[in-house]
Specification:
Rossmann fold; 8-stranded mixed beta sheet; two-stranded antiparallel ribbon; 583 residues
Length: 583
């Protein structure tokens, strides 16, 4: 599609053709009614019997079915032409708007879309000192309009081509074919149900014109924003609407709480000592939950305002503790894509800010690894708070139900990344922290994940006994756990087991006890207590028996220190995400 073709497109001619098919559809329907009344009904009421009559009736009924199928197909042509007019008109409008802005900014647009302007400050046609930035923005809009028109053209051409083929070879007279075509056309106006295979979702989305896609984003944003298989840019647009509506709803709930009840009940009111007012307790609990979600929204808004690198909101809702999926850089175009799954405490709340920051840090770390190797590849890291994570260490984090309930969601999300990616993802990683590793491990064990690498940071167990049980090459399974991380005390069996882990921890610090030395994946000597620990959710991922590559850590690092500036784990994570050897 070029500028002249789109600019000169006569939308009225498409509409005239559509109206002509409407007239043909109506006339054809009247002919069918006449056929039914004058032939079928009359023959049915006749007294003609015998073999010939039987053959004639069979053929006539068959012909009636063919006529109805043909009528359906004619109606589908009319609908396709209507969608074509709408789609091309929208693209043409966007192009004209961009061209008008170019003219108003004293710029000339060449037939191939290039922009030129007068750069002489003394000239009456001087375009201004910001002309270059303005030209870049207008050029993007022109390209987007041409792509929009091209997509509409290809989409409608495919639909009309299919119907034309049906008419040419006679398959359009088949009732089953016509029904299938009608079902497919009807499906274009209906968002696929949650849980639909992401590849099917992507095929549905591609079958819509850009105008139809925008209509879906505006009217079905709650569904589109949550649907795996929808491209990142479209999900982002839909979820921006969801974000604003969620924010407004939270404020309405806060306003509806009413004034703060008095905090304490008096001695006279309780016939005893002063106690906290139950009404205040309930009021404060609800207010704190709503305020926490607002803080989560503020974290998202703050990150979205930062343009370099850009962020995309791939999921958002305030249900339960709330959910959010934020990608740093576009995962559909990045060479390397990583999904970060946080653990206990993950929600739409205060904790979200640090989770998003970790994705930023991992993108920067991967970029450094690429730059060091002279590799121009790009990276996207996605903070995936798309599940209901446990909110307390005891008792919730000891319950694997949260991980089990997340399996379908995480599996579908990862399939969706592949469905929408422009070409094949060069290096796909899932990286998790704490209980997030349990969620990832359970999903890989029970559903499988289409990833190249898995990184398990500070894991209480991934639900498997060995790295190979995660369903990918164990040489691409990585784990890290600092000696100072208290997660190592979380034994699976009983208090005696926890005491044993604590004893082993101090034995390693003091260099006593049954101490082993080994070599990690890069030939670096490492040491630890020779104990085949089993954590609360499975074998410890950093013991030799598990079989993972061990990433370097700060020996004194705590449970959340792996992303600190001085942590050797962060550069190693970046190298895995970038597909580079660990240095």
């Amino acid at each position: 599609m070029d500028i002249k073709t789109l600019y000169d497109a006569n939308i009225n001619n498409i509409t005239i053709a559509k109206n002509a098919y409407d007239a043909l559809y109506s006339a054809f329907g009247q002919h069918i009614e006449s056929w039914q009344h004058d032939v079928v009904d009359r023959l049915g009421h006749s007294e003609w019997t015998g073999t010939a009559a039987g053959h004639a009736n069979t053929r006539i009924q068959f012909l009636s079915t063919e006529l109805q199928a043909a009528k359906q197909e004619l109606g589908l042509i009319s609908k396709a032409l209507a969608d074509a007019a709408e789609g091309i008109a929208a693209a043409q409008s966007h192009l004209i708007s961009a061209l008008d802005d170019a003219k108003n900014n004293k710029m000339t647009v060449s037939p191939d879309g290039g922009l030129t302007w007068d750069k002489d400050p003394n000239s009456p046609n001087y375009a201004g000192d910001k002309a270059e930035a303005t030209a870049k923005e207008i050029s993007k809009r022109i390209t987007a309009a041409l792509n929009e028109a091209d997509h509409t053209d290809q989409t409608i051409n495919a639909r009309l081509g299919h119907l034309a083929t049906n008419a040419t070879n006679g398959t359009g007279l088949d009732a089953a074919t016509a029904k299938a075509d009608q079902t497919a056309a009807d499906a274009l106006s209906q968002v696929p149900a949650a849980g639909t295979d992401p590849n099917s979702v992507k095929a549905w989305w591609n079958g819509l014109t850009d105008a139809q896609q925008q209509h879906m984003i505006q009217t079905e944003h709650d569904k589109v924003g949550a649907l795996d298989g929808i491209p990142a840019t479209a999900r982002h647009q839909a979820n921006l609407i969801n974000l604003q509506q969620g924010k407004a709803d939270l404020q309405r709930q806060l306003d509806g709480l009413g004034p703060e009840p008095k905090k304490m009940l008096s001695v006279a009111e309780t016939n005893g000592g002063p106690v906290e007012n139950p009404d205040y307790t309930a009021w404060k609990k609800k207010r704190d939950e709503l305020e926490d979600k607002k803080h989560g929204i503020e974290s998202i808004e703050s990150r979205l305002q930062k343009k370099d690198p850009p962020a995309f909101l791939l999921g958002f809702d305030t249900n339960g503790h709330g959910h959010a999926i934020i990608a740093v850089n576009n995962p559909d175009t990045a060479n390397n894509v990583s999904t970060y799954v946080p653990g206990t405490g993950a929600r739409l709340g205060d904790s979200l800010r640090s989770d998003i920051e970790r994705s930023d840090l991992m993108v920067a770390s991967a970029d450094k690894a690429n730059q060091k190797a002279g590799d121009p590849s790009t990276t996207s890291s996605i903070t995936w708070v798309g599940y209901d994570a446990p909110q307390s260490i005891i008792p919730e984090a000891a319950d694997d139900t949260y991980a089990k309930n997340a399996e379908d969601k995480l599996h579908s999300f990862e399939l969706g990344l592949h469905a929408t990616h422009e070409g094949k993802i060069d290096n796909n990683t899932v990286l998790a922290h704490s209980y997030g590793t349990t969620t990832v491990g359970y999903t890989m064990r029970d559903k499988g994940l289409p990833v190249d690498n898995v990184v398990l940071i500070a894991s209480p167990g991934a639900g498997v006994e060995h790295a190979r049980d995660l369903g990918i090459d164990p040489s691409h399974v990585y784990a890290a756990q600092s000696d100072g991380d208290s997660i190592g005390w979380a034994d699976a069996a009983d208090p005696k087991g926890m005491a044993k882990n604590i004893r082993d921890y101090y034995a390693e610090i003091w260099g006593v006890g049954n101490y082993y030395t080994g070599v990690d994946a890069n030939g670096v000597h490492v040491g630890g207590v020779d104990t085949d620990n089993h954590m609360i959710h499975g074998r410890q991922t950093t013991v030799p028996e598990f079989g993972a590559h061990i990433l370097p850590t700060n020996p004194k690092g705590d449970h959340s220190d792996y992303w600190n500036d001085n942590s050797p784990t962060l550069p190693a994570m970046g190298e895995v995400i970038a597909g580079k050897p660990i240095s």
